[in-house]
Design a protein that fits this description.
Elements (H helix, E strand, L loop, with lengths): L7 H12 L6 H9 L9 H10 L5 H11 L12 H23 L3 H14 L4 H13 L1
Helix pairs in contact: 1-2, 1-3, 1-4, 5-6, 5-7, 6-7
C-alpha cells in the first residue's frame, strides 16, 4: 500500500479497529500504524481523532492509537499532492456539470462561456472539450 494513496489512512484505521481485539494481530497493527507517519494526507490527524472519539471503537484500538498519537508529528504536505489534485478535479467536474446543465437547458452561449473558462484553467479536460464541440455545433 502506498502511503500517499488517497484511501491509505482510512484503510489503516479500519484494520486497527477491526483487528485490535485479536491478540495475534497486535504486533502487526503496531507496524501498520507506523505507516501513518509517512502519509501526506492533510486530514490524517482528524481521521485518527475521529476513530479515537467514535463510541464504537474497541478499547484495544483506542489504546494502540493513543500510544501512536503520543509520539506522532504529521509530515508536511506538499502543495501538489494526490488530495489537492483530487479536490481540483472535483471542482472542475462541478463546473463542467453546471456548464452541461446550461447546455441541456438551451443556454448554449452561457454553456460555451462556462466551458471556455474551464478549458482556460485546464486545457486538457476531456469532458469540457467534448462539450465545447457541441456548443460550437449548436451555435
Amino acid at each position: 500500500m502506498e502511503c500517499d494513496e488517497l484511501s491509505a489512512v482510512d484503510r489503516i484505521l479500519e484494520e486497527v479497529t477491526v483487528h485490535a481485539t485479536q491478540p495475534p494481530y497486535v504486533e502487526d497493527l503496531k507496524t501498520i500504524i507506523e505507516l501513518l507517519r509517512l502519509s501526506h494526507d492533510p486530514q490524517v490527524e482528524e481521521k485518527i481523532l475521529a476513530v479515537l472519539n467514535a463510541p464504537d471503537t474497541p478499547k484495544p484500538a483506542v489504546v494502540l492509537l493513543q500510544d501512536f498519537v503520543s509520539r506522532f508529528r504529521p509530515s508536511s504536505v506538499p502543495a501538489d499532492n494526490p488530495w489537492s489534485r483530487a479536490d481540483k478535479l472535483a471542482a472542475l467536474n462541478k463546473r463542467y456539470i453546471a456548464a452541461a446543465q446550461l447546455f441541456d437547458s438551451g443556454k448554449t452561449g452561457q454553456a460555451k462561456a462556462a466551458v471556455d473558462a474551464i478549458l482556460q484553467d485546464e486545457p486538457g479536460y476531456p469532458f469540457a472539450a467534448a462539450l465545447r464541440e457541441l456548443t460550437t455545433l449548436r451555435s
